[in-house]
Write a structure and sequence with these properties.
This protein is of the alpha+beta class. It is built from 14 helices and 30 strands. Among the domains are: 125 residues, no CATH class; 87 residues, Uridine Diphospho-n-acetylenolpyruvylglucosamine Reductase, domain 2 (2-Layer Sandwich), CATH 3.30.43; 213 residues, Vanillyl-alcohol Oxidase, Chain A, domain 3. The chain is globular, with a radius of gyration of 26 Å.
Length: 622
């Protein structure tokens, strides 16, 4: 079986032409049609991890497929492994591929590692069928170039461009109570892994697992002294991999997960590493709700800083609308309490200005909302009803009677429940069924669940864990209603989807807006999208093991769909669904609020320690 990619053909076990060098510590064997032959002498200039980092696999005649379809060739002699991070440099400018397996690996899970080698570049990703494997190659920025479907690292994965000496790293470790990890520690690599595997391969200079606010303050001072970027990480769920650093210092807050609930005051205070699941657990048994997302592993910090939408947005507003105060450690050496009474400009920016822009938020205090019994609904239909169902849901969410009563996430998928609508009705089951009649009468569901529940059992019905396979996602924030023409164009495009692998699929999800969230002025907080009818998220998925041809085709399909829908619905986008391909992102995310956000950025982060591809002020430079 061949996987046709830009660099030539990759042959897997089962192909008659396949001979793969399989490296296991200091041993190697060749694989013919899935059968292992005795080990041969081996040479390969990579450091690999097998129980402990630092072993060097060596082969003299590793077999690989050539850039053409001529069958396996020998890899040129590239010399010995010198320091960690040394490139393989074939004598000719061409690509080679090797299959390596199996080793113990902190990053990859039960898969092959495909190594693509050109004159300056080595990159890897997982495949299928074998045990764990990893290798940590050096990638040269001057010749690496992006690989379609998988973001390419721009510098060495051994910690990025080291701008500090070992003494400085030691001083950071001495000044903080949290643990500091650097390559080649296996823990370092596991902490760097991106949830979206499209951005695997980004490695910072080090990872500090902060335990206290003081750790964060010390890290900021250290980064400022050493002119190094700092990247906060809570849940690590950035669609674009922005919570995974390339170079700089990654500060992991997973140990700062305290949750304090004040039932009488109806508030909750959380640390920067708290996930939705910890808030859910702390509020179980109460009738108090924090409007938030449905994914338990998502970090509350990223959720609120980008606005925050969920199952109660139309009833109770965005997550950021319930924010009372937040503590922010800044690059100028201050730790500030930000609220409606203190440092209001920064408080304004922290409600929709997105994370990692102005400072390091070390805690958040939210107002909770008393909610008793609600009604859960979950409906799905046959694909043939797609156009009818979307049209009837569009009428329901625009009905003034229900804008602050019913939440709704609806959409289309290429597999499973392909046409669906689900949400919470803030009222009785009888009233919920009455409201849903406009949809169920238009097309009879093949699955229908409507049930009254207490608020937290109702919320738990919708919990969904995010996957970790690679994907590309795009979003549109639309201020207009969903028209019949747009619906038909969407259905036609979904019909054009081709499943190019068993793990490929696509989804388009609509999040109804226009309720309590719209009662706030677009300039009252940094979240500008207050006139939205809905937010649409469109995503194409594939597997780590899929070939470049699969990922390329899936991405191109999604780009085409986005182009058609954005032409009809507008170019605004949701900052919590970041799209690294978005050209005019500052306008799409922030609209008229962007210039004010830049001014606040310049005030609180003049040295620009907080900077990434789509950070405030990064472009256009102001």
């Amino acid at each position: 079986m061949g996987d046709d990619g830009a660099a030539g053909t990759v042959f897997r076990c089962g192909d008659q032409r396949t001979r793969h060098s399989m490296i296991t510590g200091s041993r190697a064997c060749r694989c013919f049609h899935g059968r292992h032959e005795p080990p041969t002498t081996a040479y390969l200039g990579h450091r690999i991890h097998s129980g402990g980092f630092g072993q060097t696999a060596r082969t003299t005649e590793p077999w690989c497929s050539s850039p053409s379809d001529e069958g396996p060739e020998r890899l040129p002699d590239v010399g010995t492994q010198a320091a960690h991070g040394t490139c393989l440099q074939p004598t000719r400018r061409r690509r080679w591929v090797l299959w390596l397996a199996p080793l113990s690996c902190p990053l990859l899970h039960r898969g092959w590692a495909l190594v693509t080698i050109d004159r300056f570049t080595v990159s890897s990703y997982t495949g299928a069928f074998m045990e764990d494997v990893t290798l940590y190659p050096r990638v040269r920025q001057d010749d690496a170039g992006p690989i379609e479907g998988k973001e390419s690292a721009s510098a060495t994965p051994y910690g990025g461009q080291d701008v500090t000496n070992e003494g400085e790293w030691n001083s950071l470790e001495y000044r903080t109570t949290g643990s500091l990890f650097r390559a080649p520690s296996p823990k370092f690599y596991s902490l760097c892994e991106s949830l979206n595997h499209r951005y695997s391969g980004r490695f910072p200079g080090g990872v500090l697992c902060a335990e206290t606010e003081t750790d964060i303050v010390e890290a900021l001072a250290w980064c400022k002294k050493n002119k190094m970027r700092i990247v906060p990480r809570g849940g690590g769920h950035s669609y674009a991999g922005f919570s995974t650093a390339q170079d700089g210092l990654l500060v992991d807050t997973s140990k700062m997960r305290g949750v304090q609930v004040d039932v009488h005051a109806q508030t909750v205070t959380v640390g920067p590493g708290v996930r939705n699941s910890e808030v859910f657990q702390a509020l179980q048994g109460t009738n108090l709700l924090l409007p938030g997302g449905r994914c338990p592993a998502v970090g509350v910090a990223g959720l609120v800083l980008g606005g925050g939408i969920g199952l109660a947005t139309r009833q109770l507003g965005l997550t950021c609308d319930s924010l009372i105060s937040t503590r922010v450690a800044t690059s100028v050496g201050e730790t500030l309490v930000c609220s409606s009474d203190q440092n209001y400009d920064l408080f304004w920016a922290c409600r929709g200005g997105a994370g990692g822009n102005f400072g390091f938020n070390t805690s958040f205090t939210f107002r909770l909302h008393p909610v008793d019994t609600v009604t859960v609904y979950d409906l799905s239909w046959d694909w043939k009803e797609a156009s009818t169902v979307l049209g009837s849901i569009a009428k329901l969410i625009d009905d003034e009677t229900y804008k602050k009563v019913i939440s709704c996430q609806f959409g289309l998928r290429t597999r499973g429940a392909r046409v669906y609508a689900q949400g919470i009705f803030f009222g009785s089951a009888a009233d919920a069924r009455k409201a849903l009649t406009v949809v169920t009468a238009a097309a009879k569901p093949n699955f229908e669940f409507v049930e009254e529940r207490k608020i937290w059992p109702a919320m738990s019905y919708f919990y969904v864990e995010a996957g970790s396979d690679p994907y590309l996602s795009k979003s549109i924030v639309s201020n207009s209603a969903l028209s019949e023409d747009t619906i038909q164009a969407l259905v036609d495009d979904m019909n054009s989807w081709k499943e190019r692998s068993v793990d490929s699929f696509a989804s388009v999800s609509f999040f109804a807006m226009g309720g309590q969230d719209a009662e706030v002025s677009p300039t009252a907080t940094a979240f500008v999208h207050r006139n939205a009818h809905f937010i649409v998220s469109m995503t194409a998925y594939w597997a780590d093991s899929d070939s470049d041809s699969v990922s390329n085709a899936n991405c191109e399909w999604l780009r085409s769909l986005y182009s058609k829908l954005s032409y009809r619905l507008g170019g605004a986008a949701f900052q919590n669904f970041p799209d690294p391909e978005l050209v005019d992102w500052w306008t799409a995310y922030y609209g008229e609020n962007y210039s004010r956000l830049v001014a606040i950025k310049n005030k609180y982060d003049p040295s620009r320690l907080f900077e990434y591809a789509q950070s405030i002020g990064n472009y256009p430079r102001v």
